[in-house]
Every structure is written in structure tokens, then in C-alpha cells.
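Ticket #4471: structure output looks truncated?

Reporter: J.K.
Steps to reproduce: submitted the chain below (207 residues) through the standard prediction queue, then opened the result file.
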Amino acid sequence: MALIGTGVLSGMGVVFKTFLETYPWGRVVLRTVGVKPTNGLVTVEYPDVKQQHAERFRYFPFLVYDQTPDNLRCVACRICEQECPPQCIHIIMEKDEQGRPVKNHGRTLPKVFDIDTSVCMSCRICVDVCPFDAIEMDNTYELSSEGRFTEMIYDKQRLLKSDEYFHSIHPEEAAVVDQRLAAKKAKAAPSAPSQPGASPAAPPPAI
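Returned output as attached by the reporter:
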């Protein structure tokens, strides 16, 4: 049975060790007691050195397209807009002069897809609720701007990124998405027609 407070004491030990590593005399003390210190650098020397993020790191969402930018996975269903907690997503479906939805590659298209990055909380709910795997989380974090209004609103063109880019930043997650999309495609595919000249299947015997 673990004693109460051992986790707190362990954490305090890590903090104290890191504190000693930041000073030359502290590293000497650690070597004296048989603890191997690091070089004393606790943070990376940004911007000369940039931290290598884990695959699960996420920042703001982006829209995924296949092959070409006009082949968006998004169908403007507005589920992500409705489920977004801070209401930072704004979508308008593209329609023709008669008010009918415009389709491309067999899918309806978003005419407007805006995300206010100054409001987005990077919760990933938009990714989880999307039934078409059309929106994913990016790991780009250098997005500072001199303005805090329209400069922070990312429109459809700024959000578009290829499926290849998604594979490059989240290879494990992209592989899972590919399997899910392949399963949906196989389920939606019509059954293979019978070969010409083939005899029809015999009816089951009567019981």
C-alpha cells in the first residue's frame, strides 16, 4: 500500500534536483551524492532552438483536402460549428443562383469557413464530432500577429492543408483515419455484378 504524500515528495524531489542543476555548485553537489546532473538548461533557447513536439501536440484546427484544394472533405454540414464550445467557427454553404447547394467531387462545399483563432481553445471537439474526418488539429504555434481582430480570423484558404501534410505531422492518427475512411468507402461501394453467362444461384432447399 502506497503511503499518502509519496507522490508530492517525489515531485518536490524532481523540482529540487532541477533547481540544483541550474547552478555549477549545485551540479557539483549532485555528483558528490552520486546523482548524474544534466547540463543545467531547463528550457530550450528559442527561437534559435525549437522544441520537438510529440505527435499528440495540438494547436489550431485546419481543413483537410485530398489531392487538390478543390477536393475538400468538408461538406458544410455545420456540426463542428454547432458543437464548438466558444462558438469560434462560422460556416456558410456554397449555393447557386437558385439557392441549391453547389457540389464538387460529389460533395457539397463550404463557401465560408472561418475560425477565430483568438477565441479557439484548442479543445479538439470539432475534430471528434466531424463525421467526414475533414478537420484536424495542427501543431503550428508561431501565429502571432500585429492585430487582434481580422488578423486572427482564419478563412478557408488559410485553413486548407493537404492530407499529405496531415500524415507528416500526425502519422499514427492519420493511419487510423485512413482505415476508417477505407471502411466507409468499402461499405458504400455497390456489390459486384454477376458475371455474364453465370448460372443463377440455386434457391435454398425447402424445409
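Triage note (M.O.): checked the attachment and the full C-alpha cell line is present. The chain has a mean pLDDT of 88.
Status: closed, working as intended.
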